[in-house]
Amino acid sequence: MRTYGSSTRHTGVGSQATVLLLVLLLLSGAIVSRLAWLQLLHGRDYRAMADENRIRLIPRDPIRGRLLDRNGRVLATNRLTYKLYVQPRLLSPGDWPGLRDRLASLLGIPAATLDRNHELGQNSEGYRIKLAGPLSQTQVLRFREQASTFPAVEVAADVLRSYPEGRLASHLLGYTGSIGEEEYERLREKGYRLQDRIGRSGLEKAYESHLRGEWGGQQLEVNAAGEVQRVLGDKPARAGRDLRLTIDLDLQRTAERALGSVAKGAIVAMDPRTGAIRALASRPNFDPNIFSEGPTTAQWNDLNRPVAPMLNRAFQGFPPASTFKVVTTIAGLESGQFVPSSTLPTVGQFCYDGQCYGDHGAFGFIGFQKALAVSSNSFYYLLGLKMGPDQLFRTARRLGYGQLTGIELKEEETAGLLGDPAWKKKVLGEAWTSVDTITSAIGQGAVTVTPLQMARLYAAVANGGTLVTPHLVERDTPNRWIGLKPDTVRVVREGLRMVVTEGTATLLNDPLLPPVAGKTGTGEDPPRPDHAWFGGYAPAGRPDLVIVAFGENSGGYGGTVAAPMVKALMSTWFHIGKSSGTP
Question: Which of left, alpha, beta for 578 (phi over 0: left; psi -120 to 50: alpha)?
């Protein structure tokens, strides 16, 4: 019995030892598994979390390159401001309400504003969220005094795009805007960040890669109070490059003032020898500075008015009216059907195929030069009928109409319209008639031309037959010799000079100006008021400036509305401009 009892006791002890061993093994296995789970499978994640608690990443915005006029004067630059940010990775979800209220009380910012910006700034990358800005100096000082009590919040310097001249040249300079989350997915590989800024229009967009620069940043080690202990890494931001334009600031200012005489319109001034744009203005315009902070609702509504302030009218097509008679003249002389001394009869009322068309005078038999000077409609009605529409539209294309000019802002430019017989058949399903030929010959048919295209055409006349490529930044540009006959160029130049000396633009026959040549135009746009045009150049013998002025639905005539704008620019260029480096 004792032996049996002893055996039972030994068996019980052995069983207890086995259980304890199993428990120890299970506990050890759990600990090892947990360690493996923490260290091997998720070690990187937890290391990152730990680093986030002690390491701050401070991005450094790249300084965007400046836009300068041809003499180095600033058209677009940058200004320093301060903004309030929160880093969501360093903030527990339940901590936001208390943090928001403390910030609102300290900085005098409505809690609702902080809430809205916090919600709008949420992003999948956990990138810092802008809560407010720009901050006043008082707000910056208040925050920095208590910065250690806001470990997830920072006040950082920010660089905003600034346009010192305000609305001046806004359509060609363009503006910048923030990148949204969806757009970021497409741009992140190019080095962009969420809430980064990018060129949205004009030269800001066309030369984005040249201007933008490259982000930098600092990696800082901080303690539990958020105080910086040491710098772990530092990459300076690379500034963007400045861009010097062909624009002359004095001439641009004059163009903007001159356009003040009309509600809507455009002016283009260009060197006819090279295609360098000296001034390009469109009215109404806008202030690109409002996009630096983001437009308010009122500002956005103003930008979307029916008059379209953000539309660059220098790149839009309009009926060219009598300025198109230069094309018709060239077409007739180049057709071989006419010689420089050819004359045609003019009448007060021209009738053909049962339709009658008015003219503002009967001048008898006149030649090409006189027809341009007095802008005789009946001369060009007959000229168009004699040579036919094919020759007319072929010449218009040869002179650059109906196609893009090649300027850098190609996404904003339109090609205009040359409504020839093929176009009418395809689009309207109708056959061409004599009415179409007659109206097209004086620029009143299905024809639209942009002010920039017109400047290019008048430059070709001024330089003797080269179709230049307009450009806003000095670069190698293709030019095309269009092979006009010397007599054609001579006759057109003589006629355009007569427009100023004895025709419809005698306002420009001013002894204070060099000899000016050009053509007026008054385009019908019923039931709205007429358009007013002038295209020309100076000095007539050796031109270095072409100007096209346009008043959209301005009423009046080209000689009374557009020509005074041109006179203002010529006065600036040939007097003030010469002292600032104008050739």
Answer: alpha
Whether the CB-CB separation of 414 and 463 falls below 8 Å is answered with no
Lowest mean pLDDT among 75-89, 347-361, 368-382: 75-89
Q: Express the helix, strand and coil content of the chain in percent, nearest 5 each.
A: 45, 20, 35
Sign of the torsion angle spanned by Cα atoms 248, 250, 253, 257: negative
Query: Which of 369, 408, 396, 491 shows the shortest CA–CA distance to 453?
Result: 396
Count CA atoms within 13 Å of residue 79 on its CB side.
11
Show Cβ contacts of residue 243 under 8 Å, excluding neighbours closer than 6 positions.
Answer: 65, 66, 67, 68, 203, 207, 210, 211, 473
The pLDDT, as a whole number, for residue 582 is 43
Maximum Cα interatomic distance, the chain, rounded to a whole number of Å: 154
Summarize the confidence of residues 486-490 as an average pLDDT. Answer: 98
- Looking at domain 249-285+307-580, its CATH superfamily turns out to be DD-peptidase/beta-lactamase superfamily (3.40.710.10)
Give residue-wise pLDDT tens across range 509-530.
999 999 999 999 999 999 999 9
CA distances (Å), 577 to each of 222, 452, 573, in order? 57, 22, 4
DSSP tally for the chain: helices H, then strands E: 21, 23
Q: In which band, very low, low, confident or very high, does the pLDDT at 468 lie, cut at 50, 70 and 90?
A: very high
Q: What is the DSSP string of 72-119?
A: S-EEEEEEEEEEEEE-GGGS-GGGHHHHHHHHHHHHT--HHHHHHHHH
325-334 vs 389-398: helix crossing angle, rounded to 10: 110
Chain centroid to CA 166: how far?
15
- Summarised one tens digit per residue, pLDDT across range 437-465 is 999 999 999 999 999 999 999 999 999 99
Q: Which CATH number applies to 55-244? A: 3.90.1310.10
Say if residue 48's pLDDT is above 90. no
**HSE toward the beta carbon, residue 413, CA cutoff 13 A:** 21
Asked if the model's pLDDT at residue 489 lies above 80, the reply is: yes
Percent of the chain predicted with pLDDT > 90: 68
Q: Is the peptide bond before 134 cis (omega within 30 degrees of 0)?
A: yes
Evaluate if pTM is beyond 0.90. Answer: no
CA distance linking residue 408 with residue 202, whole number of Å: 9
Q: Where are the domains of the chain?
A: 55-244, 249-285+307-580
